[in-house]
Every structure is written in structure tokens, then in C-alpha cells.
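Researcher: We're teaching a course module on how sequence relates to structure. For the next exercise, students receive a sequence and then see the predicted structure as C-alpha cells, so they can try to spot secondary structure elements on their own. Here is the exercise chain.
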Amino acid sequence: MGTAGRREDRRAAPTLLTVLQVHMPEHYRLHGLRIRVLSDHPTARRALHRALLFKGARPEDAGRDSASADATLDVSVNRPPAAPPRDDPDVEINQSVRVCLWKTAGTMILRHEDTTVELDPEAGVAEAAVASHHLAVNADGGRNSFLGYVMILSLTLLLRADGWFPLHAAGLRHRGHGVLLTAKSGSGKSTAALSLVRNGWEYLSDDTVLLRPEGGRITAYSFRRAFCVDPGTAAHFPELADGDWPPALSNPQKWQIHLEEVYPGTSAPSCTPTVIVLPDLVDARESHVEPAATKAVLEQLISEGAFFLAPDSDVADRHLAVLRRLIDQSQAYRLHAGRDVLEAPRTIHTLLVPLLEDTSPPGT
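Model: And here is the predicted structure for the students to work with:
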């Protein structure tokens, strides 16, 4: 990567004792990106390991270039949190857990009560000071997912500065055509994605992709491999009932389903989108699709791409350019999903396949 050379190692290499205590890898690979993880606490290290695996990263041997990374996540439980800026935050990212963001010249600060993350997007480094109680075991025996959430958010902000732009969307591929379904949570993305995979489509993710300009077009990459499915919805897919699925890392009320185990050979790392679908649930017997206006699609992409979290105007301009190019290369539709989506499993497949036939596959 072009930015790898300017990364700095913000902490000395861990001691042998620390390595023996943690038993966790230090380097991960995600679509060619190298991510480095540092921590002074083994539980924090394990939490980061689980979060990165959840997003599709894989451990790797650093080899000789052990200090090089495109993004470094450095978590300390012993370091006191940085004082917040005196001004009001620029953005309140998550109202339920009250994570706030300040953007200053060259840096960004995330803060939640007793936890802060200082981000240097240019250097690709996020340094977190985390309160120890965020590592405690919950009443149900599961680990608190707060640390994973904050650090994946930090990673997303770092990747954006490096030209990888997140989008809250399900990504799928069918006969060379890439399709993105983007909407707010609860709009049926996962259900739609499940029904399409069941009918022979390949999947990137049911929730998040990374957009990147490549060769004059925008490519979408997976940024979460497991599907997070409500047990009530899963009941309409009998093949899912045989799995002993754990609670989802992002939402313990849902199942974390490794879809490759159910539908082998259907996962795909990337696609070139030619169709954008804006799904919503409607109280109607039958589903239908209709063309979506360009302005509405751009507004949706900006909203679901967390556009206003861009660290500076240059990144914001590049982000907006990527979204516009994505629209230019795609046809856009609204999918009004009715009750037949669950009653007739081929409904969405039947609705979307004719839309793909109206576009040319990438490379033709």
C-alpha cells in the first residue's frame, strides 16, 4: 500500500512475557491491508482478535517487516484517558452508548465517558485508553462488545483516510453482476441477502462493505463475513436450524451464522456493483421494485456511509466522488418488500434478476 511507508511504530515491541500471556497474533490481513494490534492486557487483545475475525480479517505472520502496517490499533488498559476537548463534539456517533467524535487539525478523538481513542489518520494509528470494566464478563457470560465496537469504528476511520470507504450495505454477486442493498438496520437487508444466497447468489456481507476506486470503477469489498440473523427470521430458513450458532458479536439477540457452512462455495471477497437496491419493509402481500431517483440514492449512500465522519475536507471530497462514481456505474431501484419475501423464498431473486439483465457485467 502506498501509505505503509509512513506508518510509525508507536510502541516498543512486546516483551516475551507479554507474548506468552496473550497468545494472540499481532498482525492481520484484510484485502491486502495489514492491520497491527498492540495491547498491554490479554483480555483486550482477545477482544480485538474476535472483532477483527468478525470483520473478515485473518491473522498472518509478520515476517521480517514486523513494524510495517497500514493501520495500527493500540489499546491500553493502564493508560489514563485523554482529556476531551473543551468544545462540544462535532458528531455524536452512537446515541445508545454515547460515543462522541472531535475532529481537530490532523487528528480525531473518540470518547465515551472513561474511554478515549486518539486517531492519527495520516499515520494510520489509533491509540485507545480503555477502562478495565469494559473487559468484564457480562451477566450472560459473554464479553462486553464495547471495546470491539469502538476499535472497529476507529479502524474504519483510519481506512477511510487510506481510500477505503465504508457503506452500511449487503453485498452480493450473481453471474458477474455486483448488487448492493443499502438501508437502515431493520429494513430487511439480511433477509433479502439470505434468500438470494439460497437461490445461488454469492455473498460478500449482509451488513457492511468497503468501497474503493479501482481502474475507473468502484469495487465493493466484504467487511463482515458472518451473517447476523434474528432467530425469528431464521425460522423461515429451515437449513439454518441445524447449526449451533453463537450470539452475534454486534448484537447478542441475533445469531452469528457462518453462511459458508450452510451454502458452501457461495462467499466472495469483492464485486463491482452494477445495481443498487434500497429495500424497505411494507405491509403488503406482494413485493415490488421501482426505479429510484439519483438524488434519493445519493442521500441514502451519504447517510449509510457515515460521510460526515470524514476527518478532513480532502477525505470528504474523495468519499463523495466515490459515491457519485458508484451511482454512475449502477442502476438504482427501490425494493418494497412485502410478506411474500418470507412466504415465497424466490421472491427477491425473481424480482432482481431481470434488473441485472438490463445492465452489462463489469469488463464487457
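Model: If you want an answer key for the exercise: Residues 1-22, 138-143 have pLDDT under 50 and may be disordered. Residues 146-161 form the longest helix (16 residues).
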